[in-house]
Amino acid sequence: MASPFTLEEKQILLEAKNLELRKTKISEILTTYSFDNYNNTTVQ
Questions:
Q1: Is the pLDDT of residue 11 over 80?
Q2: 25 vs 10, 33, 35, 42, CA distance in Å?
Q3: Could you give the CA distance from residue 37 to residue 44 in angstroms, rounded to a whole number?
Q4: Strand spans (E) along the chain
């Protein structure tokens, strides 16, 4: 199944010891996607 996550991010989620830690990690991953440090103005 397609996923927007990298292989490293998927591995982090798989190795989480419990659901609480997995929830925290996925939140951290998604938060990094919301930052735009490149001032990209193209429409995708």
A1: yes
A2: 10, 13, 16, 29
A3: 17
A4: none
Of residues 5 and 23, the one with the higher pLDDT is 23
Residue 12: give the domain boundaries.
1-32
Maximum Cα interatomic distance, the chain, rounded to a whole number of Å: 39
Is 0.85 topped by the overall pTM?
Answer: no
**18 assigned to some structural domain:** yes
DSSP state of 17: S
Task: Say if 40 falls within a structural domain.
Answer: no
Which among 36, 16, 17, 41 has a CA at the least distance from the CA of 26? 16
